[in-house]
Amino acid sequence: MTPAPVDLATIDTALFDLDGTLLDLAYDNYIWLERIPREWGARNGLAAPAALHALAPRFKAVEGTLDWYDIDYWSRELGVDVERVHRTEQARIAWLPGARQLLAALRALGKRLVLLTNAHPRTLAIKDQATAVRACFDAAYSSHRFGAPKEDPRFWSGVRAVEPFDPARSLFIDDSLPVLRAARRSGIAHVIAVRRPDSTRELRMHDEFPAVDHVADLLPSTH
Known about the structure:
The protein has two domains: 8-24 and 95-222, Rossmann fold; 27-91, no CATH class. It is built from eight helices and six strands; from the N terminus they run E-H-H-H-H-H-E-H-E-H-E-H-E-E. By secondary structure, it is an alpha/beta fold. Strand 4, helix 8 and strand 5 form a beta-alpha-beta unit. The model has no long low-confidence stretch (mean pLDDT 94). Helix 1 packs across helix 2. It has a six-stranded parallel beta sheet with strand order 3-2-1-4-5-6, sandwiched between helices.
């Protein structure tokens, strides 16, 4: 679907995902598809490809649940200090093209900016240390605060309780199809998908939603 221009005059609040929307998902894909399988495999006598193959069903089993995003859960499950891995690889964390510029443009227009992420609070802190992303926002919420991921309607009711935005005058941007669907079900008027969350990988097609390659495509000057 070709994105219709968003009339920013009709929007009071812009809600943003973090990884794959503002920050390059290449970092997270490296951590979970290469770095952690390599370390876990070394401890279990497996080469990295075999380790990833062995871990894949364990990842899949909790996909879309809060455990999938919980570094304490994975540290226990795998016997790997996931927080340490993140800190070791922190230099890889990077903004996606134009993300900071869009946030600054929306701030200049007087929009309320809210970060909604499934990242564990300590993972968010590491990414914030690398990018100062939280300083770009009026508020930031991790799904762990609400005991449910963004895929779950309980997340959205939890957010509404502490961040009383008007869904009819709000914009939400994310790269995950299940999350986009949950946002739409919650009543948010403008839900937009990101097609290139990982700068090193192919585009994702999002036929259900208006979509952009990068959030920079939503800069007011591009309309």
